[in-house]
Structure prediction request, 312 residues.
Amino acid sequence: MRSLRFFTCDVFTSAPFSGNQLAVVFGAEGLSTETLQSITREFNYAETSFVFAPEDPSHTRRVRIFTPEAELPFAGHPTIGTAHALVASGDVKATSDEITVILGEGVGPVPVRVRLENGEPVHAQFVTAKLPEERAPTATIEQLADVLSLSPADFVGGTHMPMAVSTGIPWLMVPLASVDAVTRARIRTDAWERHLQGQWGARPFAFAMTNGQQDPTAPPQVQGVDIRSRAFLPGAAVPEDPATGSANSCLAGYLAARTPREGVLSWEVAQGLEMGRPSRLSIEASKRGGVIDAVRVGGATVMISEGVMSLR
Prediction:
């Protein structure tokens, strides 16, 4: 019998039982990809990460990330949560109020800056390994409205047309005209299969600017945000994601590319409210001379449980 140590945590939140759930598994060296996939299905979270010794001596750890369906080259909330768990568990020792953990992922090395207070990690921020890449979708506004059960009038349009963007995982950025439209969105799987399935950036990430308006029904940790968003994964075991670092990194790139401002551009994003898993993500893009040269996503993590899984 073989035992694997694991932690579970809630990512992109400062309150337990909110944010995006993650399992972080240690001691899986030598196990087959099929076994790692089975362990991921056992947890049945949006993602599970497996921590290994680094392949490159300049990296802190190697990390493999799985959804219940497949392995991913990169994902945001597993990156943040894994770095937090490494420091919180003592697996990686922090000797100051800040430490940078470099995770070797499928996209390459991903640096994660972890900030501590009184010796405990309270915030982590990663820098994407890849800069934003954009491709125009083939679907029209009318078709996307059909996919999201909305009206074409709910879309922003103009300079903020829908666009497929990737910083390692492609998402379809769908700017909507109001928070109400984001809340009303419902995926029609048949329409998604007709208009988006199989495309680069097929998963819709719907968002709207709050324009300073507050949602009195939202919990305190997501008050005062700039953007409300939702991430849809039609056909997946988890069909909507409560907090999506990869999609939000794409969002930072999308917004920065469409503003004339330069320097470090930042936004606060609330996601997951419609699922009862409120999440808060801090996103930023560095833009100089009209060129985006870095994208970062950060947030808090709450450790929830620790245990041992026995493999027979």
Observations:
- Residues 76-88 form the longest helix (13 residues).
- The chain is about 20% helix and 40% strand.
- The chain has two domains: 2-128+300-311, 133-298.
